[in-house]
Design goal:
- The protein has 2 domains: about 130 residues, Response regulator (Rossmann fold, 3-Layer(aba) Sandwich); about 100 residues, Arc Repressor Mutant, subunit A (Orthogonal Bundle), CATH 1.10.10.
- The protein has 8 helices and 13 strands.
Amino acid sequence: MSTQITPPTHAALPHILVVDDDPTIRELVSDYLGQNELRVTTVADGRGMQEVLADQVVDLVVLDLKLRGEDGMALARRLRDESEIPILMLTGRVEEADRVMGLELGADDYLTKPFSTRELLARIRTILRRRHAEVRQGKPEGIRAYRFDGWELNLNMRRLTSRDGRHVALSNGEFSLLVVLLGAPNRILSRDQLLDLSRLHNDEVFNRSVDVQIMRLRRKIEVDPAQPRYIRTERGAGYLFGVPVDTVY
């Protein structure tokens, strides 16, 4: 397996996974998309694709249907069965049957080889805009991550990544409270609501209190915990997450 990852960039950038067994295409696509405000990971085969999907949040997969020794159509089918991640297929010019089958399987678009990187970027941006509009309308279901101000909280991996790419360890209580806060940005939540919504009716929360959990979260994500920008205290009411939050489905 050959894997190439662009240098760490702003965690809020859309993450594109490119699956192609041609190293020239992987390098070309990675360089061009990386220069146009996209975070890119490239792999050569289905195994690499599954490893990245299991470990990271991916916003869109660019998938070559003619991988050597593998059935790209089967990879597309499995990806669609397991998730709602948008798929942009790469096919040959004369492979109309593959394009039709891929679209029937749920791929969002296709591009024929050889292709221009400019057209690839345009199609990716179109798919991401369309998916963002669907999310704002409340579909599809199944949140995979929250992003705020360059941070990313991967719900599947229970992993918080900072603006500079560091993994920040969270306790169960801290993770659950942060999920609740990110799910209701710019909304005041009382201490009782935080307990109920986080479903943390256990000794950790009751003995140490929500306030202590919030204090620990601030130490991990705020530049100045004494003057928090993200988790703000609303006196007499509760807490409010005070910056915009993007939801990744």
